[in-house]
Amino acid sequence: MKLTKCIYYFSIITLLISCTAREGKQTKETSSSSSSYTLQPTMECLTFNIDESTYIPLSQIFYFKDSAEYIAFVNREHPEICIYDVHKKDLYKKIRYRTEGNNSIARSIGNIYIKHLNEIYLDSPYATYIYKSDSSGYNLNRHDFSKTDKDEPLTTMVSSMGRFEISDGKIYLTQNINRAYGSNIVPKSSLAAIVDTARKEVRLSAVKFPPLITDSDLGTNAGFGYQYRRTFDGKHFIYSFLYSDTLYRVSSDHQQVTKVVAKSRYIPHIKINRLPADDFNRIIRTSCEEATYEDILYDKYRNVYYRFACPETTLDEDDDPLEVVRYGKKQFSILILDENLQVIGETLFPAYTYVPTAHFITKDGLYLSRSHYKNEAYSDDCLCFEKIELVKNHSF
Question: Which one has a higher pLDDT value, 350 or 26?
């Protein structure tokens, strides 16, 4: 039955992609005169069957190569990693972790980093540990990052801010605003922390959070204004803040920083909305409709960066704001940046079609999830990614 549903899903999606491409053609051609590149949706999809115990992932898709090509994601609400074979489009295996007793993790999984099938790293939003396991879920080792060698306290990691990265024996962690500092928290808080696994050392980055919010904003909706997304290109970390046009290019040791403005044409002005703390419904709706910058990715195959931007929108009358937020808001564009973070193109995608927080990159292109609950072809039984090609515009 599920296979039949997925075949039907794929046929519907092919039709919708064709219609979307025709509808979007005029917009892309109109903007091409001022842009060098465009991101072009194709009619090529990777569709995976999802069993009843697996939730459709809405973020943090990890692509890696081992004996084949794989994608992996955390099964929401379960301490479990699902690994799928990209070419076979089938489940390769599920890795279940214990949350009690020996060789257990703290309650749930946050982010994952997979070097290969028998070397898997993960963290928990409830503990300051990086766990290392094999493919059976047995924890081989764990790194404690609760404090630095100077007894400075660290925070846990929030998965939405970007995964931790591993390079040359070092683990690069994201960090939150650190309330342990008491006052003047924002300018004192480090953007990141670095774990040197060989020396067993932990240190905080010299680069601190920019002054986008103040201490008085903490505890209100504006308190989320400190959050960032980041990517790693092998030499630099690129930090993209939700409410800033400016990108921060930081050296891998987090000692030096360069600021570069990378502004979306669809966000003429960006600001943090400061709302009454007791008006929950207004806060949720505003978070859906306000303009923000979201994920940033590095495409090593084409040596470009993709910065996701969500322009200001108005929700449909029957929309559930909480669901819209979970699926990545109503509409988004992707800025294309060159190796110097200069904007060389931007593509606006149709509303309620893709999940902009669920993606991965291969040598073939950028893949975006089409498993949005408002997409007419949505099915709980299928996870669908469409290939998006980077296309150079021709000037006449």
Answer: 350
Residue the block writes with tokens 């409830």 = 126
Polymer length of the chain: 396
What is the residue-wise DSSP string for 59-91? S--EEEESSSEEEEEE-TTSSEEEEEETTTTEE
In the chain, what percentage of residues exceed pLDDT 90?
A: 79
pLDDT score recorded for residue 7: 41
What are the C-alpha distances in Å from 372 to residues 357, 358, 369?
Answer: 11, 10, 8
**CA torsion angle 206 212 213 215 (round to 10):** 30
Residue 244, classed as helix, strand or coil, is coil
Structure tokens at 100: 């009690």
φ, ψ of residue 311 to 5 degrees: the values are -70, 165
Q: 92-130 pLDDT, tens per residue? A: 999 999 999 888 999 999 999 999 999 999 999 999 999
Give the residue among 165, 245, 262, 158 at the shortest CA–CA distance from 210.
245
3-state secondary structure of 178: coil
What letters, b where the CB count within 10 A reaches 16 and e where it falls short, cover 365-395? bbbbbbbbebbebbbebbbbbbbbebeebee
Query: What does the angle CA 298 – CA 334 – CA 304 come to, to the nearest 5 degrees?
Result: 30
CB 155 within 8 A of CB 146: no
- H helices present in the chain, as ranges: 2-31, 185-188, 280-289, 321-326
User: Is the Cβ–Cβ distance between 283 and 289 less than 8 Å?
Assistant: no
Q: Which residue has the higher pLDDT, 103 or 236?
A: 236
Q: Judge whether 252 and 237 are in contact, CB under 8 Å.
A: yes
Give the list of residues 6+ apart from residue 191 with CB closer than 8 angstroms, or none.
Answer: 174, 175, 205, 207, 208, 209, 228, 239, 248, 250, 254
CA 10, 11, 16, 18 dihedral sign is: positive
